[in-house]
Specification:
elongated
């Protein structure tokens, strides 16, 4: 009995999920300037923070006093 009940519940849930997946976002949600670009082109590895400072991604290298001499 439980198998039939959970089977019907699963089929009903899938049906509702598939029908709700067709709903699109509104124009106001789609045309925001701070929207995340999920599938766009790759940007360079330089990011700018809100305060204007920049973060550059790359490899770190240890600097010793002996290498300066």
């Amino acid at each position: 009995m439980n198998t039939i009940l959970f089977g019907i519940l699963a089929i009903l849930s899938l049906f509702i999920f598939m029908n709700l997946g067709k709903i699109k976002a509104s124009k106001k949600q789609m045309d925001r300037d701070d929207r995340i670009n999920w599938g766009g082109k790759r940007r360079p590895n330089v990011q700018q923070n809100r305060d204007g400072s920049k973060i550059i991604e790359g490899s770190a290298e240890e600097v010793n006093d002996e290498t300066k001499k």
